[in-house]
Amino acid sequence: xxxxxxGGKQTAPSxxxxxxxxxxxxxxxxxxxxxxxxxxxIRHVVSTQGNDYARPSDYNYYHGLALAVRDRMIIQxxxxxxxxxKDKAKRVYYLSMEYLPGKSLxxxxxCLGLTETAQQALKDFGLDLEDVAEVEWDAGLGNGGxxxxxxxxxxxxxxxxxxxxxxxxxxxxGMFHQMIENGAQVESPDNxxxxxxxxxxxxxxxxKPVNFFGHVQTWVDDQGRLRHSWVDTQKVLAMACDLLVPxxxxxxxxxxxLWAAKSTMDFNLEYFNTGNYxxxxxxxxxxxxxxxxxxxxxxxxTGKVLRLSQQYFFVAASLEDILRRYKKKHDTFDMFPEMVxxxxxxxxxxxxxxxxxxxxxxxxxxxxxxxxDICTRVFAYTNHTxxxxxxxxxxxxxxxxxxxRHMEIIYEINHRFMxxxxxxxxxxxxxxxxxxxxxxxxxxxxxxxxxxxLAIVGSFSxxxxxxxxxxxxxxxxxxEFHEVFPGRFRNITNGVTPRRWLNQxxxxxxxxxxxxxxxxxxxxxxxxxxLSPHADDPEFRVRWRKVKRAxxxxxxxxxxxxxxxxxxLDAMFDVQVxxxxxxxxxxxxxxxxxxxxxxxxxxxxGEFTPRAVFFGGKAAPSYFMAKLIIRLINAVADVVNNxxxxxxxxxxxxLPNYCVSQAERIIPATELSEQISTAGYxxxxxxxxxxxxxxxxxxxxxxxxxxxxxxxxxxxNMFIFGRTADEIRDLRRSxxxxxxxxxxxxxxxxxxxxxxxxxxxxxxxxxxxxxxxxLLHNGDYYCVLADYRAYVDxxxxxxxxxRDQEEWTRRSILNTARMGKFSSxxxxxxxARDIWGVEPLACPI
Length: 845
Hints:
Layout lengths: L1 E4 L2 E4 L8 H7 L7 H15 L9 H29 L4 E5 L9 H8 L2 H10 L4 H5 L11 H15 L4 E6 L4 E8 L2 E7 L9 E13 L2 E6 L5 E6 L2 E13 L6 E11 L5 H5 L3 H4 L1 H7 L12 H27 L8 H4 E6 L6 H12 L4 H8 L3 E4 L10 E3 H7 L1 H19 L8 H8 L2 E2 L5 E3 H7 L3 E4 L2 H11 L1 H6 L4 E3 L6 H7 L2 H10 L21 H26 L8 E6 L8 H17 L8 E6 L7 H18 L8 E6 L4 H10 L2 E4 L11 H7 L3 E4 L5 H8 L5 E2 L4 H9 L4 H7 L1 H11 L12 H8 L7 H20 L1 H13 L6 H13 L9
Parallel strand pairs: 3-4, 3-12, 4-11, 12-13, 13-17, 17-18, 19-20, 19-22, 20-21, 22-23, 23-24
Antiparallel strand pairs: 1-2, 5-6, 7-10, 8-9, 10-11, 14-16, 15-16
Helix pairs in contact: 2-3, 2-5, 3-4, 4-21, 7-35, 13-14, 13-16, 15-16, 23-26, 23-34, 24-25, 24-31, 24-33, 30-31
């Protein structure tokens, strides 16, 4: 590094990567005492926020504390980044359209080991840490399981000292903030940063231009090479925003690098001076829309253009950043696959494959075969779904318009792949038909790009996220790809981080477990098995129940504060919280609630196990049936909760705006976890893991990771019902008739009759007719009626066991004790060993 001074050059002082003396001189060190933290909080309240520290408020001191914690994490991050360069580490780049980190303050304090220090510091200021932490808003960077899994994996990468980064979009607004009005979902903007976000670093230095539209020029250069130039494009700038992800008390901090869209022309002064004030800002508004909202509606063409633009925007900026980092130490691409691995989290980032090819061929001037060899040794693809609507396709005409060069590259990739299939001498009876099915280009009903096919062809690894799911994608969804790429498919079962979902969310249970299991079991979750003998200890079971009761009280207080309902603490807390979707079968749960209601009404003096049935989850704004199911849940709740015969026996509670921080309250209090999706449709699920880890018993189908949970926990400690995935397929093949099940089951027939007779919608006749029509007249695609009786009967077994609290508690302890496999640490270790080819680094603590 040199600096010009006058007419000559001056060499800057050099120092090794440890930089210890220099660090000490500039104060790059941590003071984690109470007094040190207090001093830094006051400094930020005064100097950063410009407020009087002598007037403490939860808001000002939340920001002051957050910035003081961020100071400590950035020191760790700098040391972590230095260690990557020192050790010449291979980097893992995790590309995900969404992350769902939740709130950062408490997680960061737990990871840094500063929770008690912060409590005391705030107490000295006359404040309470819990109240201060409530000021924070959940980060609006994700929607559901996909984003939460991504955040768990970054936590585990940091904790296991894996040299990794997360890449995504820094959304101004989350998908939406959910409110319930007259029983219906109402969406409002999720303005999660309206009061600032103290956790991020804006890196305006890393402003990457991203191109859209334009056209392609083809020409021959002076060396006779056919060249392609993407010209006359519209440019949008991508600004890096870093959010730090600390490891658990190991001195390691990594980061999510999220991209915010910035216009190349913020303000047109000429338009403004002519009075065209809106036109003066038009370019800024248009360009910055790209990072405005998570999952904008794509019902119209403009929405489709925006979604595709979002995917390319973050992929293009991320690849530019990855290449910038690689080129610091390398002049050629010979070592690129040895130093870089890019994990595609679902199909959203798949456009990265043609983008890397464009860079290597058009800009770096590599020949196609060399570039393709590099590309297919760098990318790995995680499939998260078998639902047809979730296997993305984009019309070729749309890609041609927005990304014309990429469409050419995709056609070329597919052409060469089709030629390669012609070379296979495997005796396939209909090779042309196979080519049609495997082609990246779908010809009908509209010529489109199959993004999952592109991901499979362009990656060296394709993994499912549960053993059952992986078998389905190999044998049902992509069987011929598995045949032609037999070593490419593998399984990595999902996991959840116990630091967030046990240590932070359930401190009472964590403390109880720590009495029985010495050492750092939170990072070695298989040690939970040591709890198993204590399930037979009556005294331990009493203490276990006390923890659960305390968590139920905390949730009851939250429910009272949020929606004004008093929960019956003696009732079983029966919970189904997840994205609202027909295949997840919240509707089946509602049918059971109505069945219980009818049984109590028929026998008011009878003995019933009391239940409080909780629902939570968002429906996509354009998903009519999911939104109608929410209305039905709330309509049933209105009837049940206002019927005197139900008092102390049955409650129905819908908690609006389900999010990570709400889940942290719900999951520790849950006693029965509803995991009742139609078998063969849930890829894995991670909510099922979080509930069982916290001692909830599961009622569920043999779907997703439930299958592996059953293997670990034991059938005697779960409540499994319903048809298997094979039986569901056989039922459909044989001509499934839902009327048959309705007519043979008087209870079911009565429940459906009540819905159709407007018992739950007296002021809005036929409101719920689409629901009964979907079940009885439109085929009941998700086999709700076929599984109804098995579900209701299984719930009767749940009631019987719950009445024996000693037995219920014994099973609860065993659920927690046998969840060691389902840590995201195990998942990430398998990715690192089997896919990424990386070793953990020495932690810089």
